[in-house]
Design goal:
It is a multi-pass membrane protein. The longest helix is centred in the first third of the chain and has 30 residues. 70% of the residues lie in helices and 0% in strands. It has a single domain, classed as ABC transporter involved in vitamin B12 uptake, BtuC. It is globular. The mean pLDDT is 90. The protein contains 12 helices and no strands. It has 317 residues and is mostly helical. The N and C termini lie far apart (60 Å).
Length: 317
């Protein structure tokens, strides 16, 4: 049993980290009242920037390359998300249409520049990806250490820590209170002196940064290169985790861990006695089927922020 857990838990955490990070971005955006269908595009942009930066500067930065790569991906994706903020907040455009446009634009830019710079449909494999490691001291704990802290990616625990940070920011700080107020009742927030547009801009840019972080972590741990098929459905699974987690950072983390476990089944299924005889194709489609079933079962009981998806026009009712 311990051997099974040693293979299941690190792999599930490995696949969950990008989903957790991107879902946290979705929570910030939607808590402010801006629907962000563009999480997929933000992940694509993060993956593209992270891989290209890694390939370009690996000789200069050495072992620090993946860490600097994800920071650069965060910044570029945050800037890229301003397009969605301008369309949704300033021009009161349909937030769904704007998000879909972000998805299409990010993929188009990534694929086009990849072909221009590398002369083919995908980049080279990175020389400096993230590697598994043992957590000092914690990995020595009997039983638990070998399951949770040996052969894991630091990014997996970074994602979990950020989920708790996001919870603290949203529920224990004045900034979080203002952000939630803007998403629940923007007119009341405006009356109390809160700049609705500014709060929504900040939330969308935060979602861009976290989406870019999620995409770059996915690319530098799972994919190791960039092509049109690097990020396929990950952003939508993160969006599903936001809804399944009831727009709460820790709920979104739990949902992302569940979806990450479902994704890991295609890799570790052969090690689990109950799944050894299940055809590989069923394990590959499992995460998407479970995503649909989870949303079908919970969407009716999950209440979105009341002003989610509604543009706020100052002075209107």
């Amino acid at each position: 049993m311990i051997e099974i857990l040693q293979s299941v838990i690190p792999t599930a955490l490995f696949y969950s980290a990008p989903l957790i990070l991107t879902a946290l971005g979705g929570v910030f955006s939607e808590r402010s009242g801006v629907v962000n269908i563009g999480l997929e595009g933000l992940m694509v942009m993060g993956a593209f920037v992270g891989i290209v930066f890694n390939l370009t500067f690996s000789d200069v930065l050495g072992a620090w390359t993946p860490w600097v790569s994800i920071l650069v991906a965060m910044v570029v994706s945050a800037i890229f998300s301003i397009i969605h903020a301008v369309a949704s907040v300033s021009f009161h455009a349909s937030q769904v249409v704007s998000g879909v446009a972000i998805n299409m634009l990010a993929l188009g830019i990534g694929v086009y520049l990849t072909k221009q710079w590398y002369g083919k449909g995908q980049t080279d494999m990175v020389a400096q990806p993230f590697y598994t490691t043992d957590i000092p001291l914690l990995s020595k704990i009997p039983v638990i250490g070998s399951i949770f802290f040996q052969g894991i990616y630091i990014t997996s625990y970074l994602a979990i820590i950020l989920a708790f940070v996001a919870w603290f920011v949203l529920y224990k700080t004045p900034f979080g209170l203002r952000l939630r107020a803007v998403g629940e009742h923007p007119m009341a927030a405006d009356t109390n002196g809160i700049n609705v547009s500014r709060m929504r801009y900040i939330a969308v840019i935060l979602s861009g940064a976290l989406g870019g972080l999620g995409g770059s972590v996915f690319a530098l741990t799972i994919a190791s290169n960039f092509s049109h098929s690097t990020i396929v459905g990950q952003g939508f699974m993160a969006l599903a985790a936001v809804i399944f987690g009831k727009w709460h950072p820790l709920g979104a983390m739990g949902a992302a861990l569940f979806f990450g476990f479902a994704q890991s089944l295609s890799v570790i299924g052969s090690n689990i006695p109950l799944l050894q005889d299940v055809p590989q194709i069923f394990l590959l489609i499992a995460p998407y089927v479970l995503t649909i079933l989870a949303l079908a079962g919970f969407i009716g009981r999950a209440d979105a922020p009341r002003a989610n998806g509604e543009p706020y026009i100052k002075g209107s009712r």
